[in-house]
């Protein structure tokens, strides 16, 4: 009936139990050595936003120039 090459299907509970047994927790019990203030957080968010939005803004600003160019010759 059962083929030796075919494994029986794992149920969700068996799979969940297997994952939980192999999971190692990485929870720290100590408070952080240095606290990050609001200025560092704001600075980091601003740098992140500029990094993402600057290239998109550059492209959108130059769309008229891109439209006026002739297509490249093969």
Concise summary:
Helix content is 55%, strand content 0%. The protein is built from three helices and no strands.
| Broad shape | flat
Query: Helix count, per DSSP?
Result: 3
Largest sheet: none
Percent strand: under 5%
Low-confidence stretches: none
Subcellular location: Mitochondrion inner membrane
Transmembrane segments: 41-60
Organism: Lates japonicus
Protein name: Cytochrome c oxidase subunit 8A, mitochondrial-like protein
Protein architecture, described:
With 74 residues, the chain is mostly helical. The protein has a domain at 39-67. Helix content is 55%, strand content 0%. It is built from 3 helices and no strands. The longest helix has 24 residues, at 38-61. The radius of gyration is 27 Å and the shape is flat. 0% of the residues are buried. The model has no long low-confidence stretch (mean pLDDT 80). Keywords: Membrane, Mitochondrion, Mitochondrion inner membrane, Transit peptide, Transmembrane, Transmembrane helix. Pathway: Energy metabolism; oxidative phosphorylation.
């Amino acid at each position: 009936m059962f083929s030796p090459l075919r494994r029986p299907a794992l149920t969700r509970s068996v799979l969940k139990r297997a994952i939980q047994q192999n999971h190692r927790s990485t929870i720290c019990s100590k408070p952080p050595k240095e606290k990050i203030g609001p200025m560092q957080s704001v600075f980091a968010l601003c740098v992140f936003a500029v990094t993402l939005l600057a290239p998109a803004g550059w492209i959108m600003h130059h769309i008229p120039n891109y439209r006026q160019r002739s297509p490249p010759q093969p």
